[in-house]
Amino acid sequence: MVLTRLIRAVGRPTLLETSGSQQQVVRLPLRRKYTYRSGALKPMPDITPFGLLGIICTVIPGLLIGATISKNMANFLEENDLFVPSDDDDDDD
Predict the structure, then answer these.
(1) Cα–Cα distance measured from residue 29 to residue 11, given in angstroms and rounded to the nearest whole number
(2) What is the Cα–Cα distance from 34 to 45, expressed in whole angstroms?
(3) In 1-93, where do the E strands start and end?
(4) In the list 30, 35, 37, 80, which could disulfide-bond 11, CB 3.0-4.6 Å?
C-alpha cells in the first residue's frame, strides 16, 4: 500500500517554489512495467499456450479425485460407527 502511494506520487507533477510568486511545474519520470530506465521497450512476455485448457484439465480431475476420496472416507467412517448420522433429525412430527 505504501509502495503504491509512492509510485502514484512520483508520477504526479510537482510544484516548486522559485523566487517571488512564480511557480514552476516539474514532471517527475514515471516508471512503467514495459520500459527500462533508459526508455527502451522490454520484450514481450512469454505466452503460455493452452492456458485455459490447462486450467480446466487440472481443476476437473482434482475435483473428481477429491470427491472420490471424501466419499470413500465417509463410507469408512459410517461402516466403523465413527460417524453415523442420527435419524432423529429427520422426524419433525
Answers:
(1) 6
(2) 10
(3) 13-17, 23-27
(4) 30
Cα(11)–Cα(58) distance, rounded to whole angstroms? Answer: 41
Q: Is the pTM of this model over 0.70?
A: no
Question: Tens digit of pLDDT for each residue in 31-84?
Answer: 667 888 888 899 988 888 888 899 999 999 999 999 999 999 999 998 998 877
Specify the amino acid at residue 14.
Answer: T
